[in-house]
Amino acid sequence: xxxxxxxxxxxxxxxxxxxxxxxxxxxxxxxxxxxxxxxxxxxxxxxxxxxxxxxxxxxxxxxxxxxxxxxxxxxxxxxxxxxxxxxxxxxxxxxxxxxxxxxxxxxxxxxxxxxxxxxxxxxxxxxxxxxxxxxxxxxxxxxxxxxxxxxxxxxxxxxxxxxxxxxxxxxxxxxxxxxxxxxxxxxxxxxxxxxxxxxxxxxxxxxxxxxxxxxxxxxxxxxxxxxxxxxxxxxxxxxxxxxxxxxxxxxxxxxxxxxxxxxxxxxxxxxxxxxxxxxxxxxxxxxxxxxxxxxxxxx
Length: 299
Description:
By secondary structure, the protein is mainly alpha-helical. The chain has 14 helices and no strands. The radius of gyration is 22 Å and the shape is globular. The two termini are 37 Å apart.
């Protein structure tokens, strides 16, 4: 079964959309905030960050054009055109944002890793559009599936490590271990939702049993997603639904939209094998064929 499927395309498009929305909706002077530490607004002091698109732009005082070059590249990735051609530019733009911006979070760091993992798969992708099925996969070299599925396996290992660390590392934090962490997060004016939603959420979390259940439920879900990789397809789809709901809740309540989009994209390839979209498409096609045949007979 081909790993070059619409599932892979969906993951790329969500990752690109997260970075694109960050670049479009965040003013340049906030995304690249000038300070005594970063007088140009860009973090270009690292050994490799000079290769960043935004460091190249800032050296000429051209941050705004660099931002829109990145937007164009990400928009092309979202459309799905020529994945083998857009793979490296997508990674370069994502890495540049992570390496150069002074206002990034862990989501951008993860996105830079994940887009790099995708590069070996996509360089072997011969489709003109990443939303289409791969009709030539059966005639490809045996090395193609080996490299592609090895990269998918690396993606899965990366996300298993992320969720394992995200859950287990919280055990040592007092507020997580006693079940009150979410209550404290909702008191933080930076992350808490504004009124009236914030007032409703804080009122609900004031009931200790509810707060404890949600706090421990967060830890349990993150740890369960590590084990969910080994479950059958139907169970993995259930956990994918739970993960999507979980990250959408984070986006709505804490305003971390790009982070949540990156995590949802990561969860798709963590819990849905690339070829499963192909088998699903075959099932839908078979059922539609049966339905049309039944209509023909009844007619």
